[in-house]
Write a structure and sequence with these properties.
Two copies of one chain form a homodimer.
Chain A: H1 15-22, H2 26-34, H3 41-54, H4 60-67, E1 72-77, H5 83-98, E2 102-107, H6 113-126, E3 130-134, H7 138-147, E4 153-156, E5 166-169, H8 171-184, E6 191-194, H9 200-215, E7 224-225, H10 230-242, E8 248-251, H11 254-266, E9 276-278, E10 295-297, H12 300-315, E11 324-327, E12 330-332
Parallel strand pairs in A: 1-2, 1-3, 3-4, 4-5, 5-11, 6-7, 6-8, 8-9
Antiparallel strand pairs in A: 10-12
Chain B binds a DNA duplex (30 and 30 nucleotides) through α2 and α4.
Chain lengths: ~350, ~350
Amino acid sequence: MGSETAGLEARQPVMADVAKLAGVSHQTVSRVLNGAPHVRPGTRDRVLAAIRELDYRPNSAARALVTRRSQTLGVVSFESTLYGPASMLDGIERAARSAGYFVSVASLRSLDSRSVQEAVDRLRDQGVEGIVVIAPQTSAVSAVAKVSSSVPVVAVGSGARSSIPTVTVDNRSGAEAATRQLLDLGHRTVHHLAGPGGWLESQDRQEGWRRALEAAGAPVPTVAVGDWSARSGYEAGQRMARLEGVTAVFCANDHMALGLLRALHESGRPVPGDISVVGFDDIPEAAYFIPPLTTVRQDFGELGRRALELLVAELGGTDQPIARVQIAPEMVLRRSTGPAHRG
Amino acid sequence: MGSETAGLEARQPVMADVAKLAGVSHQTVSRVLNGAPHVRPGTRDRVLAAIRELDYRPNSAARALVTRRSQTLGVVSFESTLYGPASMLDGIERAARSAGYFVSVASLRSLDSRSVQEAVDRLRDQGVEGIVVIAPQTSAVSAVAKVSSSVPVVAVGSGARSSIPTVTVDNRSGAEAATRQLLDLGHRTVHHLAGPGGWLESQDRQEGWRRALEAAGAPVPTVAVGDWSARSGYEAGQRMARLEGVTAVFCANDHMALGLLRALHESGRPVPGDISVVGFDDIPEAAYFIPPLTTVRQDFGELGRRALELLVAELGGTDQPIARVQIAPEMVLRRSTGPAHRG
DNA sequence: ACCCCGATTGTGAGCGTGAACAAACGGAAC
DNA sequence: GTTCCGTTTGTTCACGCTCACAATCGGGGT
């Protein structure tokens, strides 16, 4: 039976069907599909015609089974709702596509090690060939480093001091540039609204800020700490507005800067007339804050792309040393910064 | 050879290895793994122990090959960098996970039909069982409807008048509520900054706005058109600031509202003193605009979740009629709206 | 005319799993 | 003690593809 059972519901055509229609063996079809050499052009054409006619599509599971390659990469991401992570994911996906890979995502509920473990396991169960982790928190990265058995892993957006390859923006030099920029405008010192503890970005940006101040011989004020949210920036801003001698603030990200701007506005402290503000990230909205925000741009898409390149290289086989790619951020000057008032 | 070749690099253990270690047949291992009945508890325990000892993980490709189910769903998304799409993706992923599916993403370069076709094909080649499309533009949705052969498709975020199941926010009633809100505050009429043509959201929100005006017997001003970006909102705002008689503006999204707020600010038109502004979406930043933005909240995560539920139901088999889920949006009152000034 | 070699095509095996069927087991009913 | 039936386990096959190898074809050299 089989061939003559012209069942009404035609099952998906398989390679053998194409072969029969083209009058060749299934192996020849396979050769055409995989671009193998030694196929006579005429034969190839007949096979391709048969493929089109049947609308045949190779079964990826069967292929994966025999080649042991799923053509799939996994992405673990944490707050994928935010602009940064979302952009990195986007960059990763595009790069993966052009490298011939599919992308499967697993988002993290929380940042504890168990949750990371779970996400990575999930992806491994699916048979991904490699994993990109978008999880900028110290704990997540170290959790991943522990887990990384048997599947290559690359961290992106952070994790510069872990045992796995990473791609990040140079947070330290970005923060330094921002701080120096303010000092150059004549500010005696620069206050800092940092990100939450445990995030490498927070640490690095804070360190860059501190270093710039010290290099200039400026006093180092107490650090305010937020949680990246506009709300936390707002609250910090209310506190700072009451402080004496604050003329410049470097915020660890644009969202907190947004909240800070509003708090200063409501407290009657004009920006930049009274206080200058700098952010970090350059989210698309930053140019439309009131006033437009001077900030440090990171190219998240590029980060994602580079991370994927790194992963693909690693998959390539020749195991190179653990790579640490750092991308230089770029200062974007807008109207939230100005010269220190003579005071 | 084979069994005695204790190769240094141990290959991934397979079911047979587990079976041998546990002293059972591979089929029994399979039964344990799939929770099949009729396995003696003692046997199950031995198998589980063997699985743990070898750190065995089932080969998903082999399973997919034989069951013809990949346990994978695809997501096609367009501007996945924006808050809305990113949140929907997040919601989809979470829901998929708890339904036992993996999620594979394919982002669109552009919104033409060819590009959509390409993305869908890509996912089908990967063997996804169903697809969620996050692509709120008319053309994309209709392209998908054409393509949807052989794989169930659900559209989310838009597409309320297509031939495929959809999950959306009720844009019309949201826009109506926003407009009515402004009219109730005493404004003679409400101007509208619409989204770009070709987007269903734009159309529906504009229609809701118009309907509310007509219901109140208010004049219907010319519509300004933006492209969702803050920049376009800014430009529209500059134009509106020069117009006579503008006391209230309903923007089709929060980003444009942000730009509009800045333009009004720079033109010396206080909000809400001179002009009231309402947005749509309630992005997390909206509460920290200057002034905080009154807007219409959509729960993007919920949209994603519902879309996935719909898709899973469709996969369930019993083909139900084409579903149209609409979620009610919610007005969020903040300080960007106030009573019309007398005069 | 015959042999050799590269180009081209076909054949068979096996990837790791689940499904169908068969076999073995063990207790209850007679 | 025998029969019957439900529980438990094993055997065999197929899923659709790629890989290794064998077979065939065809032209150039001798």
